[in-house]
């Protein structure tokens, strides 16, 4: 496609005091997002998930090839297959496969191989990377695939949180079983992450350890 540019018409400029307020408010809003592991089975309309995936699809990415695919799962039998297979993998992981150091580092989170939320939560969103994209029947190479899909996944989590949903990132290792369950078992796509989304259960908790965030000085230098 040849180069064509359009005027930037949707940028909004705010007065600086409002910029500061917006930046602070955004921080207050995003710091209320916590990974939760107890979900209610309350239904969440598909339309909300659709809007969040559309938001994820606006993420910056290599050459705008959009190297991602999302599979949003609400079907109880697909969710129970995912739970069964994820728990089998997690049993091996917690049984020793993760290694002593990794398993030790997870202790403050109190996680284990049981993943009931994979059935309780109304939505599981499997995120896939794509090595190549199709364009009018032609295969084109994708670039910065992991960076791009990571940013899109961040956008997705932020959108789900902003919509009023609880979220969890889940990465059973290995995750290849997701390809089969989601019908995306091909040479081009790999499972990247599973996002759990829904209302938190009444008795949902947050591990105290997860609330300890590094200070600005620890995470940033200004030169
Ligand atoms: N996938 C496992 C283990 C796990 C790994 C990390 I790194 C975490 O931050 C949390 C859990 C599980 O989901 O239990």
From TrEMBL:
<protein>
    <submittedName>
        <fullName>Nitroreductase family protein</fullName>
    </submittedName>
</protein>
<dbReference type="InterPro" id="IPR029479">
    <property type="entry name" value="Nitroreductase"/>
</dbReference>
<dbReference type="InterPro" id="IPR050627">
    <property type="entry name" value="Nitroreductase/BluB"/>
</dbReference>
<dbReference type="GO" id="GO:0016491">
    <property type="term" value="F:oxidoreductase activity"/>
</dbReference>
<feature type="domain" description="Nitroreductase">
    <location>
        <begin position="30"/>
        <end position="199"/>
    </location>
</feature>
<dbReference type="InterPro" id="IPR000415">
    <property type="entry name" value="Nitroreductase-like"/>
</dbReference>
<keyword id="KW-0285">Flavoprotein</keyword>
<keyword id="KW-0560">Oxidoreductase</keyword>
<dbReference type="Pfam" id="PF00881">
    <property type="entry name" value="Nitroreductase"/>
</dbReference>
<keyword id="KW-0288">FMN</keyword>
């Amino acid at each position: 496609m040849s180069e064509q540019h359009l005027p930037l018409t949707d940028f909004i400029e705010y007065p600086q005091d409002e910029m500061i307020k917006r930046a602070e408010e955004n921080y207050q809003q995003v710091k209320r997002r916590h990974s939760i592991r107890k979900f209610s089975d309350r239904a969440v309309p598909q339309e909300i998930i659709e809007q969040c995936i559309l938001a994820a699809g606006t993420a910056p990415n290599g050459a705008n090839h959009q190297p991602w695919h999302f599979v949003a799962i609400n079907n109880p039998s697909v969710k129970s297959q995912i739970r069964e297979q994820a728990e089998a993998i997690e049993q091996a992981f917690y049984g020793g496969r993760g290694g002593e150091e990794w398993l030790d580092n997870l202790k403050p989170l109190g996680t284990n191989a049981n993943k009931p939320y994979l059935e309780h939560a109304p939505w599981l969103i499997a995120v896939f990377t794509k090595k190549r994209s199709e364009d009018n029947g032609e295969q084109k190479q994708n670039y910065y695939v992991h960076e791009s899909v990571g940013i899109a996944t961040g956008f997705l989590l932020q959108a789900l949180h902003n919509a009023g949903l609880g979220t969890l990132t889940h990465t059973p290792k290995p995750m290849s079983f997701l390809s089969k369950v989601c019908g995306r078992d091909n040479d081009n796509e790999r499972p990247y992450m599973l996002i759990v989304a829904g209302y938190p259960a009444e008795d949902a908790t947050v591990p105290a350890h997860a609330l300890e965030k590094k200070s600005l000085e620890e995470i940033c230098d200004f030169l």
